[in-house]
């Protein structure tokens, strides 16, 4: 990216043309349409006896005495809303992390942030006995912040500093340790043992609407922070010295980015557990369409990430019907190969 992109000139790295704003706006509308289709499919597809007609009636003229409408309102709507909120939060968090750290491997799951939020939330529920979302969601934020600081501190050791590969390795090690702690707490508490898969890999099943309402304000604030960071992330991607020369307050930008990531990751984990690879894959997919401009990468990530989460959840329901495969397992299966390809790219290793 060149400095021209910060002032709206449509040029890119090495003279590469950046998509025009009208074209990107049309693409954003098309992406919103794809998200609407995925949302509808999430409401219609499932193992229960409820079809498209039940969905329409449940939304427009609900009758909870009808079994199909009851399934839609009590099961599928909360599940779909959870996928929308968690997906949007993780997509934005991943884009912000990759921009502020200039690290194409940054992701809330890979860098251990989701695992940090998860283990502290499980501690709050299983050990401290906090069952209200308004109380334990704060522990999710604390865990996300603590894990981020721990991974960055470990990855910064050595002369090379926090390289992408070192951060990925530090995140993997941290996730493994925190995941073991989560498992240990769940296995010693019979009342929360049935939530094991949820807190281990992430799931949208049986979401409590109260959790969604409690998390919504935090995701909203985090999303506003993230979307406002587009020009600052463009500057930071040029390096700290050039960003300062362009008038950016680097410290304030990094602080705002950290606040956005903690709010988004903490709330997403409280909703759906630790879902991995969403924040890694979606910003890279957005760049294919938008180029390197974070003013467009962020809104595209906001819409594309829920599509990935909802489609993964639908796939998990279909391939194991009448049971299901948790959404975190499906996103991990989808994201494993692209992650290996990213690590193997020579220019990423040399950063």
From TrEMBL:
One of its GO terms (biological process) is siderophore-iron import into cell. Gene3D superfamilies: ABC transporter involved in vitamin B12 uptake, BtuC. GO terms for cellular component: plasma membrane. It comes from the Bacteria. InterPro entries: ABC_BtuC-like, ABC_transptr_permease_BtuC. It is found in: Cell membrane. SUPFAM superfamilies: ABC transporter involved in vitamin B12 uptake, BtuC. It is a multi-pass membrane protein. This is Iron ABC transporter permease. Keywords: Cell membrane, Membrane, Transmembrane, Transmembrane helix, Transport. The keyword Disulfide bond does not apply. The chain crosses the membrane at residues 23-43, 77-97, 109-130, 136-155, 167-187, 211-230, 251-277, 297-315, 327-344. One of its GO terms (molecular function) is transmembrane transporter activity. Its main location: membrane. Pfam families: FecCD. Belongs to the binding-protein-dependent transport system permease family. FecCD subfamily.
């Amino acid at each position: 990216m060149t400095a021209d992109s910060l002032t709206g000139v449509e040029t890119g790295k090495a003279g590469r043309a950046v998509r025009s704003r009208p074209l990107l706006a049309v693409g954003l509308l098309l992406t919103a349409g794809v998200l609407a289709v995925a949302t509808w499919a999430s409401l219609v597809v499932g193992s229960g006896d409820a079809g498209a007609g039940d969905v329409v009636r449940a939304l427009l003229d609900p009758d909870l005495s009808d079994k199909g409408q009851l399934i839609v309102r009590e099961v599928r709507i909360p599940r779909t809303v959870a996928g929308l909120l968690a997906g949007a939060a993780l997509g934005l968090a991943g884009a912000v992390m990759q921009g502020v750290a200039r690290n194409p491997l940054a992701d809330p799951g890979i860098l251990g942030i989701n695992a940090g939020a998860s283990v502290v939330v499980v501690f709050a529920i299983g050990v401290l006995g906090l069952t209200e979302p308004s109380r334990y969601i704060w522990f999710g934020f604390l865990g996300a912040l603590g894990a981020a600081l721990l991974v960055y501190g470990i990855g910064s050791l050595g002369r090379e500093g926090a390289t992408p590969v070192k951060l990925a390795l530090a995140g993997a090690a941290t996730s493994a340790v925190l995941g073991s702690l989560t498992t240990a707490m769940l296995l010693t508490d019979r009342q929360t043992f049935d939530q094991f898969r949820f807190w281990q890999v992430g799931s949208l099943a049986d979401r409590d609407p109260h959790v969604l309402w409690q998390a919504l304000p935090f995701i909203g604030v985090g999303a506003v922070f993230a979307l406002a960071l587009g020009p600052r992330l463009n500057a930071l991607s040029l390096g700290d010295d050039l960003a300062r020369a362009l008038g950016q307050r680097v410290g304030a930008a990094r602080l705002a980015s950290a606040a956005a990531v903690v709010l988004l990751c903490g709330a997403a984990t409280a909703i759906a557990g630790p879902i991995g690879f969403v924040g890694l894959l979606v910003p890279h997919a957005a760049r294919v369409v938008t180029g390197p401009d974070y003013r467009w990468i962020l809104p595209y990530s906001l819409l594309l990430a829920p599509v990935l989460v909802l489609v993964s959840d639908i796939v998990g329901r279909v391939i194991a019907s009448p049971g299901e495969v948790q959404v975190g397992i499906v996103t991990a299966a989808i994201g494993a190969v692209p992650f290996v390809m990213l690590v193997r790219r020579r220019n990423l290793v040399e950063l």
